[in-house]
């Protein structure tokens, strides 16, 4: 898991060939005032879900795990807490892995929490079970999906 400010994205762009394309797009477009929906940058290899979800209480949120995609969460508006727990420590499977949608869900409690503010991003790898959308009210955020 990596947490940082958008202005520092150059430090991690070498970690995946599509990271730079993602960050260049995010930094050069006014996505807060763009209609919500999927933005395709490279078909199913790189796309962005521009969303306006409602937050939930920490105790009501589940951990999600992906196998085929790296997520980059970029907060545009609001404040979001994301829980994390080590993959090897998960015990309470709620939804077995679904290839379509690339996710499995777990009812375990996170062991660590981070709070995102506008202009920050969080990268979660397949080994990073994460529980997003913890907080109050609605958010505007981007979820970049980068195929591994």
Unreliable spans are: none
Helical fraction equals: under 10%
Count of strand segments = 12
Radius of gyration: 15 Å
Q: What's the shape?
A: globular
Strand content: 35-45%
Return the string of H and E elements: EHEEEEEEEEEEE
Structural class: mainly beta
Mean pLDDT: 97
Q: Report, as a whole number of angstroms, the end-to-end distance.
A: 15 Å
Adjacency order of strands in the biggest sheet: 1-10-5-12-3-2
Q: What is the overall number of helices?
A: 1
Q: How is the biggest beta sheet arranged?
A: 6 strands, antiparallel
Overview of this protein structure:
By secondary structure, the chain is mainly beta. Helices cover 7% and strands 45% of the residues. The chain has one helix at residues 19-28; strands spanning 2-5, 37-42, 46-51, 63-65, 69-77, 80-84, 93-98, 103-106, 112-116, 120-124, 130-134, 140-147. The strands form three sheets. The protein has a six-stranded antiparallel sheet with strand order 1-10-5-12-3-2, with helices on one face. Strands 4-8-7 form a three-stranded antiparallel sheet, with no helix packed on it. The two termini are 15 Å apart. The mean pLDDT is 97.
């Amino acid at each position: 898991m990596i947490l940082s400010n958008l202005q520092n994205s150059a430090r991690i762009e070498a970690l995946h060939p599509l990271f730079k394309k993602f960050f260049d797009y995010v930094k050069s477009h006014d996505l807060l005032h763009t209609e919500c929906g999927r933005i395709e940058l490279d078909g199913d290899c790189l796309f962005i879900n521009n969303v306006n979800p409602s937050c939930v209480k920490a105790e009501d949120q589940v951990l999600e795990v992906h196998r085929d995609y790296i997520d980059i969460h970029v907060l545009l508006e609001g404040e979001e807490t994301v829980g994390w727990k080590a993959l090897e420590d998960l015990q309470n499977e709620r939804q077995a892995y679904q290839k379509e949608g690339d996710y499995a869900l777990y009812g375990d409690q996170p062991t660590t929490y981070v709070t995102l503010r506008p202009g920050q991003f969080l990268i979660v790898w397949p080994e990073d079970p994460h529980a997003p959308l913890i907080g109050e009210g609605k958010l505007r955020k981007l979820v970049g999906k980068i195929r591994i």
